[in-house]
Design goal:
10-stranded mixed sheet; about 625 residues; 6-stranded antiparallel sheet; alpha/beta; metal-binding; disordered N terminus
Length: about 625
């Protein structure tokens, strides 16, 4: 083989060459593989939800199960899009991910994909995958057309827990319904899949390119640094020096808990190596296949260690909590923000970021084009949008609905109550941005706001705290008392009966109000009730049955929704919200303020009767 200029080549027998490229990374060249066709039969229930396909590991490890879904996806994308393409394959590192990466890589080769990009150790947060798809350019000028993301998000991991897979498109966002419907249709009729025989497992622990020969030419696997592209994007958005000044101040202390998810990889590089935080500020930042036996959902129930450190534990008293704390979920797209002995609701968080973005975040200095929230999220963002004269959109749950608004240049900041916040620069049509929720982005946004508010008093004067910022926001915009009750893994039949009962009640608002007054006379009347329906302003598609709403004349809301993010059973989410404009009444305890509405919601829905549950699994 001729030696390329600048390369160093070593011959190791007849099968393999090791080449060092200009970056001195290993470039391995190996013998030819062949394409093998494997007969298979369909599996029931491979319909992707809003976040892909999620099942227990024991389901995914069945022979042909993962392969069927992957082949169905390639078939849905079409030969013209797949052949010669570049794909990203990575995830949150949960159990079975390493095996799945090797299977998908071999199937990609057999389907004519030219190259596969894999984050080192198979680790890329969901927002980092989006950034890589949108931003990364290969040494040969290649760009990714999409990604297989291996995650079940905030669900537990391990041999007896959850696994998931979803496909993201060339815009870095989740596949639209047109594609996911095709994938599902293909899973119901699939008869065979193709896989590369003779293609060895690739070492994903070391960065470098492995190059192989196949029936249609070269096939490369590029294992690359998991954080570099994402870090570059974050540095283009935020003022890192100002955040670094904040983190270096003796007045300010910081704690970040990755719950043993993939965000831990990015956290050390960004917060410690780039921003100068002490490594002791990081908690549970080593990714583990089972998330350390925990539940990687950043809320007050599951992020116990962070909650205790921040002085919010009922079981443990922390004498000197940090000024700022944050947590991430398994795949790094969700976040929770805490102040010293103070919890920030996700709905307040996105509203506060939107209210302060132009002043505190350089990337938004030119202004916001619009803001959006998911329907169950509180109306705190609505009030900010009205006050700042911004376009506002209310969409169904599912990040893909935000994607259309972003691609059309209609939305700059968006968020949903499931501890997810996202963004779009909106500066011009070719600016760089992602199409996923982004937990670390939200943390950097909060640190930027804190840095801006404290730019003149890090030396002298009192620190403006997280609690100060939230309470000032309430004084300006009013407070939306808000909570969510999750009933996880309830009987699916009972859950459907509960929802049907709530829909039937909506036929007579007068009757609903009679029932409510019989429960609590101090609760306002319902003025409107419906099943939320959304017509996309970009493509005109209509999404029906997106949640059951009861809207009260004082601005309060009850929302009931079945979640599609669990792997078995059903999850009922109940959202309870009350708006208070009177500044003298915004300091109440949230659960105390919402107690009357909670009682109405549980009795109106007959929650215990239909689910058999006397209490929710999680309250946030």
């Amino acid at each position: 083989m001729p030696c390329m200029v600048g390369d160093v080549i070593l011959q190791l027998g007849d099968l393999m060459l090791l080449r060092f490229d200009f970056g001195m990374r290993f470039v391995k060249e190996m013998a030819m593989f062949k394409v093998t066709r494997i007969e298979t039969t369909p599996f029931e229930g491979q319909k992707p939800g809003t976040s892909g396909l999620r099942k227990k590991v024991k389901v995914f490890i069945q022979p042909h199960y993962l392969q069927n879904f992957v082949q169905a996806t390639f078939n849905a994308l079409g030969v013209d899009r797949v052949k010669g393409a570049t794909l990203v394959v990575s995830g949150d590192g949960r159990y079975y991910s390493k095996d799945a990466i090797q299977i998908i890589t071999k199937m990609a080769a057999a389907n004519g994909v030219r190259r596969v990009w894999i984050g080192q150790n198979g680790l890329l947060s969901t927002p980092a995958v989006s950034a890589v798809v949108r931003e990364r350019v290969g040494a040969d000028g290649s760009k990714a057309i999409g990604a297989f993301i291996l995650t079940a998000s905030h669900n537990p991991g391990g041999p007896h827990e959850d696994f998931g897979i979803k496909y993201n498109m060339e815009n870095g966002g989740p596949a639209p319904e047109g594609i996911t419907n095709k994938i599902y249709e293909n899973t119901t009729t699939i008869k065979e899949y193709v896989i590369a025989e003779g293609l060895p497992d690739v070492d994903i622990s070391t960065t470098g390119v492995s190059s192989f020969d196949g029936p249609e030419g070269k096939f490369d696997v590029d294992v690359f640094d998991s954080t570099s592209d994402y870090l570059k994007l974050m540095k283009s958005i935020f003022d890192f020096p100002s955040i670094q000044e904040l983190l270096s101040s003796p007045k300010f202390s910081f704690c970040y808990d990755a719950l043993h998810g993939v965000a831990g990889v990015h956290a050390k590089r960004i917060f410690v190596e780039e921003l100068g935080a002490n490594e002791s500020s990081l908690v549970n930042c080593v990714p583990k296949e089972d998330f350390g036996g925990g539940h990687p959902d950043p809320n007050l129930t599951y992020a116990k260690e962070l909650v205790a450190r921040m002085g919010l534990s009922k079981m443990h008293s922390e004498p000197n909590p940090p000024e700022f704390g944050a947590a991430a979920d398994g795949d790094g797209d969700r976040n929770m923000v805490l102040g010293k002995r103070f919890f920030v609701t996700p709905s307040d968080s996105v509203a506060i970021i939107a209210a302060n973005a132009v002043q505190a975040i350089p990337y938004f200095s030119g202004g916001l084009k619009g803001v959006a929230r998911s329907m169950p999220t509180s109306a705190a963002l609505d009030v900010v949008a009205k006050h700042l004269n911004l376009k506002f959109f209310e969409v169904p749950t599912g990040w893909k609905f935000f994607g259309n608004l972003m691609d059309a240049g209609m939305c700059s900041i968006c968020g949903e109550e499931s501890f997810g916040t996202g963004w779009l620069s909106g500066l011009n049509s070719c600016s760089d941005h992602i199409r996923e929720k982004d937990g670390i982005w939200a943390v950097l946004a909060w640190l930027s706001i804190l840095a801006y508010k404290n730019k003149d008093n890090l030396g002298e004067g009192n620190l403006v705290t997280v609690e100060d910022i939230v309470r000032q926001h309430w004084a300006t915009y009013g407070r939306h008392y808000y909570t969510r009750y999750d009933y996880e893994n309830v009987d699916a039949g009972g859950a459907k009966e509960l929802m049907a009962h709530l829909v039937k009640l909506q036929s007579s608002i007068d009757e609903v109000n009679k029932i409510i007054k019989g429960i609590r006379s101090d609760v306002s009347n319902v003025v409107h009730a419906d099943e939320f329906e959304y017509k996309d302003p970009v493509d005109g598609l209509v999404s029906k049955h997106q949640g059951i709403r009861y809207l009260f004349e004082d601005g309060s809301r009850l929302v009931f929704r079945l979640s599609g993010t669990g792997s078995e059973g059903a999850t009922i989410r109940l959202y309870i919200e009350q708006y208070e404009k009177d500044s003298s009444k915004i300091g109440k305890d949230s659960q105390e303020a919402l107690a009357p509405l909670v009682e109405v919601a549980l009795k109106l829905s007959k929650m215990q009767e239909y689910t058999g549950r006397s209490a929710p699994t999680v309250i946030t």
